[in-house]
Predict the structure of DUF1876 domain-containing protein.
Amino acid sequence: MMKTAVGWHVELEFKEDDQHTKAAALVRLPDGSEIRGHGRASRFRTDANQPRVGEEIAGARALNELAMQLLDKAHEEIDQASGRTSQPIHI
């Protein structure tokens, strides 16, 4: 039988101008820690102005950074619990 232990909420915020989009991602973990990731996207001056596309690219990059930090955190916790150096976790 599977039981649900916890849920996570991820927040994404965007700041934009005519050619740049910045994204910030935040997840608060049950252990009280917070992990943040950042991403950017730029529009070439001759491209159509599509803010949603910039948000998708910058958001994906922020979430990717957040995911890599979660993998690093898990790797460190494995090492601490086992008392040895484990193999890096790759995606």
The helical segments are 51-82. The longest strand covers residues 20-28.
